Amino acid sequence: MGRKRLQGQRALVTGASSGIGLELARVLAEEGAHLVLVARRTERLEALAAELKQKHGVDARVLTSDLQQPDAARALFDQTEGQGLAIDVLVNNAGFGNYDDFVAIPWERHATMLQVNVVALTQLSHLFLPKMLERRHGRLMNVASIGAYLPCPTFGVYAASKAYVRNVTEAIDYELKGTGVRAISVCPGGTTTEFLDAANQQLKPGASLAMMSAERCARIAVKKMLRGRRNVVTGFLNSLGMWLLRFVPRGLYAWIGAASMGAAVEKKPRALAATPPPPALPGPPAGA
Ligand SMILES: NC(=O)c1ccc[n+]([C@@H]2O[C@H](COP(=O)([O-])OP(=O)(O)OC[C@H]3O[C@@H](n4cnc5c(N)ncnc54)[C@H](OP(=O)(O)O)[C@@H]3O)[C@@H](O)[C@H]2O)c1
Q1: How far is the centre of ligand 1, averaged over its atoms, from the C-alpha of 154 (Å)?
Q2: Please, are residues 87 and 127 in contact by the beta-carbon 8 Å criterion?
Q3: pTM, whole model, 2 decimals?
Q4: Which domains, from first to last, does the chain contain?
């Protein structure tokens, strides 16, 4: 590898315990960046930190954080910038989906997902950007999805959360013009990670051929961030598909969303892992 383009800078990556976030951390370390690794599964983060230190000689710290908690973003800021640890690259990657009909998903799952995918991401961006602006240097990477491009029945709230991520990130990047700070939204297509499992999905036979590796996805994301792109869809076929959508009448989007999801994945034959049991309905009096 040639010149390390992030030598001496520090990146904070949320969702670094698995999948795309883990690979983003590896690619950023390869580019010379020190890391702050964030997720709930501390042991995984510590193993990754040890690997990055040993392989790339960077400083890698672990911050265990549950982004479902409303005070999590503020705590992450206080534990880094608040203590003089400058963050040059903020990667909001943590996220998950819930695959089922809108009304079949318990409200708590919708609310938790919106907190992680939308609220925490927005608050972290809002907390860290002013410091980058003071220094006139920095990068924000927000991980969206190709789901951002159209309504996806049975994945509706997730896809809409990603449409939010893409739109808000592109708007922020426009506002950042001339400041030395940039923002990029990254829109992966199907990528082999723990995402499907967490979303209660499984791949249909043959669909694995269309999946990208998390490493490739991360390499594309970092490359495009360093080139100053505002948005990237990972992979040629995904990019072509999203580009072609502009020629399709909006009325067909939900159908296309349903058909493309339905061709690739199906619901897993088990209950959602973190779904609390539904509240017991008041039953008839004993003996009735
Ligand atoms: N894989 C795909 O096909 C695909 C496609 C498009 C977009 N994406 C997006 O890519 C991003 C990364 O997903 P992935 O595919 O790499 O899935 P993944 O392997 O399931 O990783 C998700 C990461 O998010 C973290 N996370 C989830 N809930 C969290 C919480 N409450 N607090 C802190 N961290 C949390 C997880 O860490 P802990 O569980 O340890 O907390 C994990 O590190 C997500 O935003 C996803 O929407 C994925």
Answers
A1: 19
A2: no
A3: 0.94
A4: 10-267 (3.40.50.720)
Q: Is the CB of 168 under 6 A from ligand 1?
A: no
Size of the chain, expressed as the number of residues it contains:
288
**Catalytic member of 158, 164, 174, 253:** 158
Q: What pLDDT, in 10s, does the model give residues 115-167?
A: 999 999 999 999 999 999 999 999 999 999 999 999 999 999 999 999 999 99
158 is catalytic: yes
**Alpha-helix runs per DSSP H in 151-213:** 156-175, 195-198
Q: Is 12 exposed, middle or buried (0-12, 13-18, 19+ CB in 10 A)?
A: buried
Task: Compute how many other C-beta atoms are within 10 angstroms of the C-beta atom of residue 166.
Answer: 23
| pLDDT at site 269 | 82
Q: How far apart are CA 97 and CA 157, in angstroms?
A: 8
